[in-house]
Prior knowledge:
Layout: E1 13-17, H1 21-32, E2 36-40, H2 46-57, E3 60-64, E4 72-76, E5 80-82, H3 85-88, E6 94-98, H4 104-111, E7 120-124, H5 130-138, E8 146-151, E9 155-161, E10 165-171, E11 175-180, H6 185-196, E12 200-202, H7 207-210, H8 215-227, H9 248-271, H10 285-292, H11 303-308, E13 320-322, E14 328-330, H12 335-338, H13 341-355, H14 360-370
Helix pairs in contact: 4-5, 8-9, 8-13, 9-13
Amino acid sequence: HMSKVDAAAPKPQVCVCGAGNAAHVFIPLLSSMGYNVTVFADYGDEAERLQKGIEENDGLRIDDRQDPENKRSYKGKPLKVSKDAADVVPDADVIIAALPSFAIKHVLTGLKPHLKEGAVIICMPGQGGCEFVAKEVLGDDLGKVTFAGIIPMPLNCRISEWGKSVELAALKASYDLAALPAENSQKAADVLSRLLGKPVRALQSFIGIALNGGNANNHPPRLMATWGNHTEGQTYAENPLFYETWDDEAQKWCGMISDERLKVFDTICEKYPGKFGTPGQIPDVRAYMAKINKGQISDDSTIKGVFATNNGLKGFHYPMKKTEAGDWEIDFTNRYFMEDIPEGLCVYKGYADLAGVPTPGIDAILTKFQSYLGKEYIVDGKLCGKDSMATKAPQAYGITSLEALLP
């Protein structure tokens, strides 16, 4: 795995929040690299269960499958696991919060009284409005501490046995980061780069994270290409592979969404020169996938290629479930719908409305799928439906103009 830390420099202490898939990797990964790692897990009895698993197993084990030719396993253990932030947060220089967006407010509230001056909180992923939550919870402490958000999510991993072992399929090759206060973004990028041993680019604002690539640009257009003509109650004979079967129609929709979000970003940058970023700064979908999955793709010359020939994306199927009759129906409760639409595509749309940029592709996908989700996000081409405030768009956080986002 990654190189040992530079022995001459003092090692930062790292606190990992939660006990999900990513935490199962970061705890042993960073401790095996020589960092002092603590864990803040205050959900239910997770701290106790994690402590017990680590004791029984003499550490958390990573089964590292990043290089199929060279599979390896190693263990690591934290200094301390606690459900009480006072036990594990006060000495932490870096706090890793790899959390679902609904948990961010709760965790930041727990961290706040115990953060040391100069601490850097790294939220992953940084999309989904985490910066608005951080402003609300941390308030005047921003500056004393730094809150950063990154994309992509660093790991493809899956817990094998909770509290004992996890399989690591991929660690992404490079990252974009934004921070509050914005002038600390380079400092935070340096901290993360040193921690992961990967390049991290500091962006000027969270708008560059919100309108960047990711699941919202990948999953909904793929679903639209396949199920654009779906009718209520329709079933299917099989559940095909999601990425290996990527076709021209999927490439078309995916490219359309990519072009629209880039147009929104560039328009915002042009309206406020020097405030949010530089036009052309964030990558289109092909360049984004090629960059973060470097070394895993055999043909990265087209949008189709970065998905269909990507080793990190092999073996995934569509979000479907078996019916009693033995055929397949769409699972509209899957996160490809329930997260990637309100927390992703609707975010692109929210910024588009603020910038006054039309988005026919995004509108078509939202219009097609919202009724199947029992939701109304978009009406007459605007994000103003009855469920628009339950999204992660800036409007849901009370932002009604681009001026309100100025630093």
